[in-house]
Amino acid sequence: MHEVDMTKCLLLSMQDWRQRHGPVSPSVKVVHLQVGDFTCVEPAQLVSTWDVAIRGSWLEGARLSIESIPLVGRCVRCSATYRPSADSAYRSPCCDHPMEEVVTGRELRIRSVDYTLASSVPAEKPTPVPS
Amino acid sequence: MHMPLEDTLGLNLLAANQHQAEHNRQHFDAWELLCLNVMSSPGAGKTSLLERSLAQLRSEFAMAVLEGDMTTQLDAERLEAIGIPVVPITTGRACHLDAAMVSGGVKLLRQRLDPADLDILWVENVGNLVCPAEFEVGEHRKVALLSVTEGDDKPLKYPVMFREADCVLITKVDLLPHLPVQVERIEDHIRQVNPHCAVIQVSATTGEGLEAWHGWLRQQLAMPMGQQAPALVLA
């Protein structure tokens, strides 16, 4: 259900990005997201919400591509990384230590946007925004 | 010619909400108040606990409540009866509060009082263990409630919520003698995903644990708002 609100946030971020391009509206082909397994986002729901939300908008036809990022923890006792399983074992298998450090899995990131610009304007690549 | 381009953004998907949350937090900091985001599943006892805590703490602290509810104002009426200013935020379809809704609630609150006079602003979120974990509202601390009647597996089923919490209150502990639940297992499961948060057992019915919980609150108020919540060391 909250994927609707996540999509709204995503559209606002895309709108900001578009405005930085000035008068020429970029034609977006693909929006690449990274979504960690240790978030409350269901990628399939996000895609279906996106497909509905962009109908009739400047993003119509743009595809949402989601890369799932696995949950990886690091044991603070021995520094070994491990993949906790959602079923029961968030403790490190090496030292039986709680999941203290999360290396990856909390990502909710717009990684990049594939797009084209109208031919009348030189297609200059804008400065990337620091993450 | 259409040349395909790629912009590397690295933006958070929820950047729009985070900007608003940061804006809210700047206001809270300027008013020198502590904002707490109280979250749990429906029926874990958020409103009952707030009723007890507000009644006990009202002589010590100036407080107000932003009360999130999907459709009704029932919880707001319960809390208003204590004599604490309450602004109901009915979220309609949304199953969580977001930073813009809280900003709207603060605007309504400002029609009634000057937030700079407050010590604590409580945000009682919509009952839900999933979405509120991802939508910041500008809070300084997240407080998650888990009642013993929900079973001991919830921290493992909804780990993001319990991972994000600064304080987890295990509620309704007065019911423990009647349930096949070991509170130690609940605590262990919370610790698996969040080894450093404060974990406090409370009962809004008997008052058990309320002093420890209020002690945690006083600790948070005693430190600059921007600082991380420390672990509570319980004897």
Give the total of domains of chain B.
1
Instruction: Give the terminus-to-terminus CA distance of chain B.
Output: 71 Å
Percentage of residues assigned to helices of chain A: 10-25%
Give the overall shape of chain B: globular
Strand-and-helix sequence of chain B, N→C? Answer: EHEHEHEHEEHHEHEH
Structural category of chain B: alpha/beta
User: How many strands of chain B?
Assistant: 8
Backbone CA Rg of chain A: 19 Å
Oligomer: heterodimer
Q: Beta-strand level of the residues of chain B, as a percent range?
A: 15-25%
Task: Supply database-style keywords.
heterodimer; A: 131 residues; alpha+beta; 3-stranded mixed sheet; 6 strands; 27% strand; B: 235 residues; alpha/beta; Rossmann fold; 7-stranded parallel sheet; disordered C terminus
How would you summarize this macromolecular structure in one to three sentences?
The complex is a heterodimer of chains A (131) and B (235). Chain A contains two helices and six strands; from the N terminus they run H-E-H-E-E-E-E-E.
Structure description:
Chain A is α+β, with helices and mostly antiparallel strands. Chain A contains 2 helices and 6 strands, in the order αβαβββββ. Chain A has helices at residues 3-19, 43-53, and strands spanning 27-36, 63-69, 72-74, 81-82, 101-104, 108-116. In chain A, strands 2-1-6 form a 3-stranded mixed β-sheet, covered by helices on one side. In chain A, a hairpin with a 6-residue loop joins β3 and β4 (81-82). The longest helix of chain A is centred in the N-terminal third of the chain and has 17 residues, at 3-19. Chain A is elongated, with a radius of gyration of 19 Å. The two termini of chain A are 27 Å apart. The model of chain A has no long low-confidence stretch (mean pLDDT 87). Chain B is of the alpha/beta class and 235 residues long. Chain B has a single domain (17-222), classed as 3-Layer(aba) Sandwich (Rossmann fold). Chain B contains 8 helices and 8 strands; from the N terminus they run βαβαβαβαββααβαβα. Chain B has helices at residues 15-30, 46-57, 74-80, 99-110, 154-157, 159-164, 183-193, 210-222; strands at residues 5-12, 34-39, 63-69, 86-90, 120-124, 141-147, 167-171, 198-201. In chain B, β7, α7 and β8 form a beta-alpha-beta unit. In chain B, α1 (15-30) runs parallel beside α4 (99-110). Classes of the chains: A alpha+beta (131), B alpha/beta (235). Chain A binds chain B through residues 1-2, 4-6, 8-10, 12-13, 17, 26-27, 29, 33, 35, 38-41, 86-91, 97-100, 102, 108-117, 119, 123, 125-126, 128-131, and chain B through 1-17, 93-96, 98, 130-131, 133-135, 156, 159-160, 163, 191-196.
